[in-house]
Amino acid sequence: MIVPVPDVKGREKILEVHGQKKALAEDVKWEVIARGTPGFSGADLENMVNEAALLAARGDAEKITMIHMEQAKDKVMMGAERRSMIITEKEKEITAYHEAGHALVAMLLPGTDPIHKVTIIPRGRALGLTQQLPVDEKHTYASSFLKNNLCILLSGRVAEELIFGEITTGSGNDIERCTQLARKMVCEWGMSEEMGPLSYGKKEEQIFLGREIAQHRDYSESTAVKIDDEVKRIVLKANEKVHQLLSENSAVLRSIAQALLERETLGLDDIKAIIGHDGKTASPAEIQAQA
Amino acid sequence: MIVPVPDVKGREKILEVHGQKKALAEDVKWEVIARGTPGFSGADLENMVNEAALLAARGDAEKITMIHMEQAKDKVMMGAERRSMIITEKEKEITAYHEAGHALVAMLLPGTDPIHKVTIIPRGRALGLTQQLPVDEKHTYASSFLKNNLCILLSGRVAEELIFGEITTGSGNDIERCTQLARKMVCEWGMSEEMGPLSYGKKEEQIFLGREIAQHRDYSESTAVKIDDEVKRIVLKANEKVHQLLSENSAVLRSIAQALLERETLGLDDIKAIIGHDGKTASPAEIQAQA
Amino acid sequence: MIVPVPDVKGREKILEVHGQKKALAEDVKWEVIARGTPGFSGADLENMVNEAALLAARGDAEKITMIHMEQAKDKVMMGAERRSMIITEKEKEITAYHEAGHALVAMLLPGTDPIHKVTIIPRGRALGLTQQLPVDEKHTYASSFLKNNLCILLSGRVAEELIFGEITTGSGNDIERCTQLARKMVCEWGMSEEMGPLSYGKKEEQIFLGREIAQHRDYSESTAVKIDDEVKRIVLKANEKVHQLLSENSAVLRSIAQALLERETLGLDDIKAIIGHDGKTASPAEIQAQA
Amino acid sequence: MIVPVPDVKGREKILEVHGQKKALAEDVKWEVIARGTPGFSGADLENMVNEAALLAARGDAEKITMIHMEQAKDKVMMGAERRSMIITEKEKEITAYHEAGHALVAMLLPGTDPIHKVTIIPRGRALGLTQQLPVDEKHTYASSFLKNNLCILLSGRVAEELIFGEITTGSGNDIERCTQLARKMVCEWGMSEEMGPLSYGKKEEQIFLGREIAQHRDYSESTAVKIDDEVKRIVLKANEKVHQLLSENSAVLRSIAQALLERETLGLDDIKAIIGHDGKTASPAEIQAQA
Amino acid sequence: MIVPVPDVKGREKILEVHGQKKALAEDVKWEVIARGTPGFSGADLENMVNEAALLAARGDAEKITMIHMEQAKDKVMMGAERRSMIITEKEKEITAYHEAGHALVAMLLPGTDPIHKVTIIPRGRALGLTQQLPVDEKHTYASSFLKNNLCILLSGRVAEELIFGEITTGSGNDIERCTQLARKMVCEWGMSEEMGPLSYGKKEEQIFLGREIAQHRDYSESTAVKIDDEVKRIVLKANEKVHQLLSENSAVLRSIAQALLERETLGLDDIKAIIGHDGKTASPAEIQAQA
Amino acid sequence: MIVPVPDVKGREKILEVHGQKKALAEDVKWEVIARGTPGFSGADLENMVNEAALLAARGDAEKITMIHMEQAKDKVMMGAERRSMIITEKEKEITAYHEAGHALVAMLLPGTDPIHKVTIIPRGRALGLTQQLPVDEKHTYASSFLKNNLCILLSGRVAEELIFGEITTGSGNDIERCTQLARKMVCEWGMSEEMGPLSYGKKEEQIFLGREIAQHRDYSESTAVKIDDEVKRIVLKANEKVHQLLSENSAVLRSIAQALLERETLGLDDIKAIIGHDGKTASPAEIQAQA
Fold it and tell me: Which of C19, C45, C78 delimits the end of a domain?
């Protein structure tokens, strides 16, 4: 399957087009930016260039610099900052541990996309955000990669539970995406040994009633029970793995959360400095064994 | 998740705009009012200012005072008073105990939002009302907070049962909201250990057939049975808790109800005076143990 | 819940408005009529006044009298009389016992609304009618009141069965309303201990496909089975109660039916005279015990 | 429930209106015809008068006589004769026994409507027809009457089976109507002791998708199973009864069928002559016992 | 039930009308053709006459002869020949055995309609065709006749299996029609003793969503299981019968297939000559015993 | 069933029409091309001729040659090449083994269509492609042929698993098509002995809501369970067969994959050269035994 977004060469060309009549500082290199924006659509890139121009104008800068570009990229990827939003100390603390959980698990699991930024400054509709950025563009995803993604999605919620002893409504979106991903592994990609190399359900995207009116169910209730069991089994296994990882690394978890409460935003190097190594310490074999 | 209503600073600005051409008494301070109206939308605030102006005009007051503002706020929060409505003594008594139940449980449970007013003057479509007002704005809700809300919703019905030995149709809306909240805890926020950190059902909000045509069910009948069991278990546990709280405090319950029958409306201080302390006496540990 | 019909004061004002340009006899007192028409909507009241004017005109009366008003009220409440309709002696007899059943049970059960009239003159789409008129307006209904209503609805059918040994299609509407009421007690008002203080199903009233396309079912098949069992249990208990009441009072039942066959229409005082007391003889305790 | 067709007085008036400008023989008495056309709508009566005028005109009669009226009535009740239709001897024989079965069972069961005519001349869309005509208009139906109707509907099929050892597609409509009637007895009229005095399903007649899109099912699968069992039990009991009646009276059955093959159409008197008595010999007690 | 097509007299008149202005050879007798075209609609007959005129014109014949009529009739009944279609030897062989199976079973079973033609020249959308022509028009069908039809529908598939050891997608339409017929026997015509004289499901033909949106299911899942079992039992019994018939007559089956491969089209007399007798050798008793 | 595409003669004529005004080299023979394009629709052929003209124009060739035709045919069959797409070495390697799996299984299984080309150059929406080209046009398909197709569809996924120990999302489309084919074998073509010669479900293609809104389910849940079991059994049997074939021939699998990584595209002769024989070595008997 090919994702309908431009590849690195395509991005470079798109950036050149949108940057043509802009005043650019010498440090702006389209090739470099193109490499750092995998997954961006043409519209995302145009947005980013315009946003950078705006930032430069606001700052009375004569030319758009690489720093403007970086800020613009963050806005496109993660939504606008909402610094004015009033958040209680308690919620800020919960958010810090939630994001620290995402970040730490993403760091520890091998084969995951590197972290771009972690922040507890509200952005768009979120109180906090952990952003990953793939090194290269993928067209297909291995089941091990997807299982790691399940772990990352669950890690915010597990961190809350470990530290505060209870969870909040804030993880609703995480577990929704996690459940959907696990369901696709079972029903579309044949990644459950129990269910075998079959697809379950029929996508109904073109119907006039709207978008995908939900997978059309073309199987028996008995099969539905087995699918539910498999989806739950896969999510619970990931959840257990996350519990173990965060329990064993709770000191680091606390350090990241404290750093977030102090500095609000952390980059990949900040996190590496806190945990004291480059991450990916959970050995692949160990992960495999759990699959 | 961010609720799309203005925060305290936003509210202050909105109030300033709508109050610009109004004749205001010196005691009217936008900042104070803004702090006392969390959860109000821009339209609510505009409504409130206009309503206050109307009340001032009706009373032939030259300027809008803080008292007009307070009355206007109550109308926006709780609907217009319907004093002309004829209600039998029996129904008035049932309503008093129903609202007294809500108020007492909200007072006793720790971590709940403080009570603003309790009344048995019919307002809007209700025979009585217990209104809470949060101290600060929440963007997420902890499971313990939600469990307390279940208790508050059930407490009117339990009070009726304790005092009169039977229930009325008047709690229909309470148990509907209580059931929906418990279902969301199980299906959207992963707050049932039995069901695990998964989401159940798919929201279908955008379909042209209307608003959320009900959660689309994407799970098996067997899972549906487990969800029903969990929702019922959570509601019954809250109901049991309320039974215990009101039974142990039935003397206070009667005092509040009597006060309501005499004075019709009670504020937070009135209730504190009746129960003899500041509330929140049910220890968190005790609540936790029941979770 | 507030029923959107005017209360006694509202009715008096509405009557005054519609009566303004009518020639009224001196005995017509709006206040008295207002007190005798609880549950009437504004349109009902207008209808009644116009109908009374028509009756006066037909009778070549110069002014509308209280008698015209009474007849008009009956027409609005129970539909137009259809005296021309040809009904066999057998059907007339069955109807008399059916209505006598309704009337007697309404008389015997405590807390029910008083009877206004019982008739076997066909009115509207019905072969006979038993009309109750509440003493005061209710905004909520206690479960004991609703259980009595179930009994009244079932009593026509039970009377037929007791007297003729078989039932007819004539009770179809009664058992439909009885079933719907019992279902609401279980699913909307939490009046089944088995099902607990939860609501079952989601009302879908606003959908463009028409009015309430039936409660949307948001529960499992297993829960559906329990709901069915509870609804049936509640109806059967009421049915048993009615059997007992009518069996124990079969002589009175026969007397009322005979009176109906002779006089066609009976008022509350007629029925009291037949049964020899004011009714409500089934003690509340006895009823309660069955709940 | 009142059927929206005119009663005997109404029919007489309607006939007078439509007969006003027609040339009528002296033997035509509207009152007599009105009595002989229960269940006819206003349109049916108009049809009949016009049809009689047409028949008179075709026969070059100067005036419409009672005989024209009779023929016109048959056409309106049973559809136009289709004498030209070619039917094999075998099919004619099967039809004769099928209709003889209907007629004989209708004769033997007490309380059924009297037979008007039996014919094996194809009419409308049917190869043969047995027409009953009620003595007086019913507004409600007793369960015993409905059970007899089930028997009459099944008797054509049973006759075929008894005589020819197998059945044909010709009884498809009979068993469809029989099943629907039995289902209504169980689900709408509370005539199954097992299911009790409750209604099952919700009629959805006004929905824009067409007429009654089928009863909306508002009960559990478990209740559906019980309904199916009851419907089947009721139909099978009727079927058994018919088997017994026709087996015990097979000689008469053959005589009626032979008479039909010879004379094509039989009236009530012809059938009485064949069976040697006035029918209704199956004692009510016997029928009751089976209920 | 009456099929809405003209009978033999009707056909003769329709043929006369459409033949009025055509140049006809003396051998063309409408009466004869009318007798040979049962089941033809008015449109079919008009088609046939026009087609014959076209054939005569193409062949430069001055008048339409009986031979043109015969060819035109075949085209209307079976679709246009598609001689140009390229078919592999293997497919031609499979088709020959498939059609031979249909033909042989139709010959051997008593009471079936006589064969008109068997062909392996592709016609319309089919690779081959076996056409039967009823001797007289039926308005109803006996269950034994329908059971034989099930056998004929299955016989192509069974022949393939017997000769080649496996089946092809080519019988998809046969088994679809066979299943539908068996389902109607069970659900509409009461021909399953197990299911009794009841109809199952409700035809929804007039709904605007299209034609019969499928039988509306008005029964329980438990009944659905029994229906499925009966439908399968009936089809499997027919299949077994066909297996036995074709196994016992495999030499004749091969002879018919060989004749088809050589001559492409066979008439009734050709087949009689091959099997050495007039067919219908499976005694009715034998068939009955299987019912 | 006839596929609505032109046969070889039809294709030749269509090619002549579209080639009429094109400048053609002498080596272009419509007859040859027609033989090499089974399954092409008229639109495909027109596309191909135009594409060839374009290629010739781009290459500044005066006339369209057979080489242009070949390239155009590949583009129409397999989509446009997307050489610019950036794919990681890892994904390229996985794709090579995936396609090698498809190719090898198609080579080894007897009776399958010959391979036209195998490529790991991205085309259209695919990272790689294995294209088969039938020797002659089929109108029906034997169950053995379909079972082989199931094997070919599963072989890419099995190759990934054997070589890399895990699977990717890249086989999602393969298993969807495989499941649909197996389901049709069971439900439409009667190819499961367990389910017998019956069709299950009703195609609803003409409904205005769109194309085939999914097979309408006209069977019980119990039958649905059996269908699911059969579909799974058939797919798992094919999967097992593929596992065996690829395990036994893993050296050849690796050779083909290596050749693909080096040469990117292989033709039938290239693959024959690699595996050292003409393929189809899995004996039919062996395959049969597994059916």
Answer: C78
- What's C41's domain CATH number? 1.10.8.60
Range(s) of the domain holding residue F57: 8-78
Are residues A49 and A147 both part of a single domain? no
Q: What is the interface pTM, i.e. ipTM, of the complex? A: 0.86
Give the CATH number for residue E121: 1.20.58.760
Most confident of B126-130, B220-224, C1-5: B220-224
More confident: D290 or A273: A273
- Residue D3 domain flag: no
| Domain stops at, among D26, D56, D78 | D78
From B207, B104, A190, select the one nearest F232 (Cα to Cα): A190
Predicted confidence band of residue F130 (pLDDT cuts 50, 70, 90): very high
For strands C115-119 and C265-267, give the pairing: antiparallel
Residue D1 domain flag: no
Clarify whether residues E64 and E122 are in a common domain. Answer: no
Kindly state the average pLDDT of the residues E207-215. 42
B264 catalytically annotated = no
Are A70 and A101 part of one and the same domain?
Answer: no
Which tens digit of pLDDT belongs to each residue from C113-128?
A: 999 999 999 987 789 9
Q: How confident is the model at residue B216 (pLDDT cuts 50, 70, 90)?
A: low
> In terms of domains, do C266 and C205 share one?
yes
pLDDT tens, position by position, D2-46: 345 788 888 999 999 998 889 999 999 998 898 888 888 889 999
Do A117 and A205 belong together in one domain?
A: yes
pLDDT at position F161: 97
Q: Are residues E193 and E285 in the same domain?
A: yes
Quick one: CA dihedral B282, B284, B285, B290, positive or negative?
A: positive
Residue F2 has what pLDDT? 36
Q: Are residues C13 and C155 in the same domain?
A: no
Beta bridge partners of B202: B216
Quick one: which of A18, A8, A7 has its CA closest to A45?
Answer: A18
> In a mutagenesis test of the C interface, which of D37, D189, D217 is the best target, namely the one with the most C β-carbons within 10 Å?
D189
Residue D208 falls inside a structural domain: yes
How many Å apart are CA A232 and CA A240, to the nearest integer? 12
Task: Say if residues A16 and A30 touch (Cβ distance below 8 Å).
Answer: yes
Residue B160 confidence class, pLDDT cut points 50, 70, 90: very high
**Residue E229 carries which DSSP code?**
H
**How far apart are alpha carbons E200 and A283 in whole angstroms?**
62
Residues of A with CB under 8 A from a CB of F: 1-2, 7-9, 136-144, 146, 188-191, 196-200, 202, 204, 206-209, 216, 218-223, 291
Q: Which of C139, C190, C218 sits opposite B171 (nearest CB)?
A: C190
In angstroms, rounded to a whole number, what is the distance separating the alpha carbons of residues F222 and F195?
12
Q: Which residue of C has its CA nearest to D201?
A: C176
Whether residue B249 has pLDDT greater than 70: yes
CA distance B208 to F157: 40
The C-alpha angle D197, D199, D202, rounded to 5 degrees, equals 170
F142: β partners: E168
Q: By 3-state DSSP, what share of chain C in percent is helix, strand and coil, each rounded to 5? A: 55, 5, 35
Give me the number of domains chain B comprises. 2
The pLDDT score that the predictor gives to residue F187 is 96
pLDDT at C213: 42
Predicted pLDDT of residue B239: 98
Would you call F160 exposed, middle or buried from its count of C-beta atoms within 10 A (0-12, 13-18, 19+)? Answer: buried
Is residue D83 one of the residues assigned to a domain?
no
DSSP string for residues in B44-91: HHHHHHHHHHHHHHHTT-SSB-HHHHHHHHHHHHH--B-TT----HHH
Cβ-nearest to F232 among A142, A198, A209: A198
One domain, residues A66 and A118? no
pLDDT value of position C38: 83
